[in-house]
Design a protein that fits this description.
Blueprint: E1 4-5, H1 15-19, H2 31-48, E2 53-57, H3 61-72, E3 77-81, H4 84-95, E4 100-104, H5 113-120, E5 127-131, E6 133-134, E7 139-140, H6 143-150, E8 157-161, H7 173-176, E9 180-184, E10 196-200, H8 202-209, H9 220-229, H10 240-256, H11 258-279, E11 281-282, E12 293-297, H12 304-313, E13 316-317, E14 319-320, E15 329-333, H13 340-354
Parallel strand pairs: 1-13, 3-4, 3-5, 5-8, 8-9
Antiparallel strand pairs: 2-10, 6-7, 9-10, 11-12, 12-15, 14-15
Helix pairs in contact: 2-10, 3-4, 5-6, 10-11, 11-13
Length: 356
């Protein structure tokens, strides 16, 4: 039985999108490949609200996260973590011999503008990483407030992880002043896993030029330069089938209308939050609750594994908590091409199974 995946990703992909991946292969050095990659990039410029260069990467989002912190940290990175994926960015820095400090918060809390101000006022850092939407805790950080602080430090490169939020909530990259904004295909964009995307500002490009050891496959400057010199070609062979699907899906996203898409995601989020507050508790502070995934405090002590087995029989899947939160929380994603009716259907089934 196919299950509707209300998990943090991968999520369901529409059949017409999947079918795009069956198109005949083209040479990755051909004009057709350049045209495809240019088309995708121009559409992503609209989704990202940016005029900066789009980079495509045949990796998960983690690949571009690692590439960003290694390629653009000249002096020292400040990694702001609100959970497992912020922690991962710090581990990437350490494993690449990049000088970095991690600034964590209590789980369920957010990175605030005041925290960023306090750290940057020391003058020790020339790169900052922020996780916009932390799927382990369901926290969505206040990036518009953080942006006001970042603009006071124009020499600092700002890297933003929007892996689980881009395409599901409005992120205006240029207005915010984000230098490297990263996302993945398998979440709110409603595509299969296998590729990541980033925008890269001129400031980030100039910063990377000052870094001697940027690696090879994930050297963002090399990728950037290759696109300019080779007409939207890439140094390594890209995942052409996913790019066919991405080009097609981006047309559907833009046809829906970005504001309509964000409103749909918000409606799903608000409905799940209301249900969670009625029967359980929200794990994050509500003002920082994610619009693409809700993390719910398991105050009833339900066995999430057993719940998921029963849901599986009915054609659904949700997610238990992540890491240390495995039994303390459970998570319901509401992103991509799901509708409010899909969410209501899922919650009605949970109500029935748990006799809520």
């Amino acid at each position: 039985m196919n299950k509707k995946l209300f998990i943090p990703g991968p999520i369901d992909v529409k059949q017409d999108v999947l079918e795009q991946m069956t198109k005949p292969m083209i040479g990755h050095r051909s004009k057709d490949a350049s045209a495809l990659q240019r088309s995708i990039s121009e559409k992503l410029n609209k989704v990202f609200y940016t005029k900066e260069q789009i980079l495509l990467s045949t990796t998960s989002g983690s690949g571009l996260m690692e590439g960003a912190i290694r390629s653009c940290t000249r002096k020292r990175a400040a990694v702001f973590s609100v959970g497992s994926f912020g922690d991962r960015w710090y581990k990437m820095a350490v494993s690449n011999n990049v000088a970095a400090d991690k600034f964590s918060v209590e789980v369920g809390k957010a990175t605030t503008a005041e925290m960023v101000e306090e750290v940057l006022s020391t003058g020790k850092y020339d790169l900052v990483t922020v996780t916009h939407n932390e799927t382990s805790t369901g926290v969505e950080n206040p990036i518009y407030e953080i942006s006001k602080v970042m603009k006071k430090y124009p020499e600092v490169v700002w890297c933003l992880d929007t892996v689980s939020s881009m395409g599901g909530t409005k992120i205006e990259v240029d207005e915010l002043g984000v230098d490297i904004c990263i996302t993945s295909t398998q979440k709110a964009l409603g595509l299969p896993p296998g590729m990541a995307v980033a925008s890269m500002s001129q400031k980030a490009v100039e910063a990377a030029k000052q870094v001697e050891f940027r690696g090879l496959y994930l050297d963002l400057l090399d990728i950037y330069d290759y696109i300019q010199k080779k007409d939207y070609q890439y140094p390594s062979t890209p995942a052409i089938p996913i790019m066919y699907a991405m080009d097609y899906q981006l047309d559907k996203i833009l046809a829906e209308g970005l504001d309509n898409r964000y409103a749909r995601h918000l409606a799903m989020a608000e409905y799940v939050r209301a249900w969670a507050k009625k029967h359980f508790e929200l794990f994050p502070e509500e003002k920082y609750a994610s619009n693409t995934l809700t993390t719910i405090k398991n105050i009833k002590g339900i066995n999430v594994g057993d719940l998921n087995k029963e849901l599986g029989k009915r054609g659904y899947a949700i997610s238990n908590g992540y890491g240390d939160l495995k039994e303390k929380t459970f998570r319901i994603a509401h992103m991509g091409d799901y509708t409010l009716d899909d969410v209501k259907e899922l919650l009605e089934n949970i109500d029935d199974i748990l006799k809520l």
